[in-house]
Write a structure and sequence with these properties.
Distance between the termini: 34 Å
Order of helices and strands: HHHEHEEEHHHHHHHH
Number of helices: 12
Strand content: 5-15%
Radius of gyration: 22 Å
Helix content: 55-70%
Structural class: alpha+beta
């Protein structure tokens, strides 16, 4: 199940084109609002900050989610499985395993390949079997190995900078509206259009990049475990579990597919279909059964936490 050269090339070109589109739009908006010199300073400072301090977002996110470190004493099978997957993926360091005390089934990775962490929520650990957990962990390890975390971090920063510049530009236009109306100042017609539409275009490009990386992480995770069906089963289970009873009552149409351009993740059905097209050998997959871990006495209900994270 090793990805072909064509697959790697197509995936790389798609990611590069999306990032290039975001960078080009960012340059246009920033240079329009702040001028070329200040734009260069902002871009170089942003990229430099991401290069020299990739570990800062990790600590912030872990604190925001109230995550605590899981040792081999707390969760031996999870830690051991993560070590095997990290070794297969060729990571320079085994990611730390963290526990998020939330009922919301969720898993995510933070950091860089040299200093990463994989977080699992209580809700996810309660519903996953060992085989499904292996698929989920492999998916997150694939994200780390592919350097998706840094890539998506760069895309997020670009999107935020452009949004901020667009809002500043719109404020400047509003403040100068009297001068524009009396003819004392001239603004080309395309400038207001760019300022209004650029945040939306950046968001769409960012979502498209996210979907591309998710497909590749699915394939990478299946390759690590040799068991694509494990991740497919986990995805289907998460799809069923994330629905809420109140949505059935007040939002009966919630399952109507949203526009594909506005999805952060590809549709679960499409991800499962792609996974089932792969032929797994099942090597290294743990015996199926319930996941055993030491759960704390009190688990938080899903809610918005610090910095707007939903946990």
């Amino acid at each position: 199940m090793t990805p072909s050269f064509r697959h790697k090339f197509h995936n790389a070109i798609q990611s590069v084109l999306l990032l290039a589109g975001m960078a080009a739009l960012g340059w246009v908006i920033l240079s329009t609002v702040a001028g070329p010199q200040l734009t260069w300073a902002v871009i170089l400072g942003t990229v430099g900050g991401l290069m020299v301090s990739p570990g800062i977002p990790r600590g912030m996110l872990l604190r925001a989610y109230g995550a605590r470190r899981l040792t081999e004493h707390d969760f031996p099978e999870g830690v051991h499985l993560l070590e095997i997957l990290a070794r297969k993926a060729g990571l320079p360091r085994v990611p730390d395993l963290y526990y998020v005390p939330s009922q919301l089934p969720n898993a995510f990775a933070v950091g860089s390949p040299a200093n990463s962490a994989v977080c699992l929520s209580d809700g996810l650990l309660r519903v996953m079997t060992r085989r499904e957990l292996a698929g989920v962990l492999a998916h997150e390890v694939a994200h780390i190995a592919n350097r998706d975390l840094w890539l998506m971090g760069l895309a997020d920063v670009l999107s935020r900078v452009v949004s901020l510049a667009a809002w500043v530009g719109q404020l400047i236009l509003v403040l100068n509206l009297p001068l524009i109306l009396v003819g004392a100042a001239y603004v080309p017609w395309h400038v207001p259009v760019l300022l209004v539409l650029s945040p939306t275009v950046m968001a769409v490009l960012q979502l498209a990049l996210s979907r591309t990386r998710e497909f590749d992480a699915d394939r990478g995770g299946a390759e690590l475990t040799g068991d694509p069906e494990a991740l497919a089963s986990a995805l289907l289970k998460l799809e069923r579990r994330t629905g809420r009873a109140w949505e059935d009552i007040f939002l009966p149409g919630r399952r109507i597919p949203q526009p594909s351009l506005l999805r952060t993740h590809p549709p679960t059905e499409e991800r499962v279909e792609r996974l089932r097209e792969l032929e797994g050998e099942g090597r290294g997959v743990p015996a199926d059964g319930p996941v055993r871990y030491a759960a704390p006495a009190r688990i938080a209900a899903p809610r918005f936490g610090p910095w707007g994270v939903y946990r």
